[in-house]
C-alpha cells in the first residue's frame, strides 16, 4: 500500500471513532438525565426474527400495492387502445 492509501484509511478510522464517541456521549447524557430524575431506564426489547418478518411482510404489501396502483392507472388511462398502458408484473 502506498502512503496516500494509509493516510486515507487512518482518516476514515479517526472519523468513525470520533462519531461513535460523540454518539456514546449523547446516549450517556440522556441516560444520566433519566437517572438524576429517578426515572426507570428501559432497554429496548428487540427481536431480530420479528423485525425481519415485519420487513418482509411490508415488502410484500408494497409489491401488492404497487401492482394495484398500476392496474388502477391502466383502467383510468384506457382509451380503447394499448397506448399509455403499463405492464402489470407479478
Word description of this protein:
The protein is an all-alpha fold. The chain has two domains: 1-43, no CATH class; 44-90, no CATH class. Helices cover 70% and strands 0% of the residues. The protein has helices at residues 3-36, 48-76. It starts with a helix and ends in a 14-residue tail after the last helix. The model has no long low-confidence stretch (mean pLDDT 90).
Give the topology, please.
Layout: H1 3-36, H2 48-76
Question: Keywords for this structure?
Answer:
0% strand, flat, mainly alpha, 90 residues
Total domain units: 2
Unreliable stretches covering 5 or more consecutive residues = none
Q: Give the distance, in angstroms, between the N- and C-terminal Cα atoms.
A: 49 Å
Q: Could you tell me the mean pLDDT? A: 90
Short description:
This protein has 90 residues and is mostly helical.
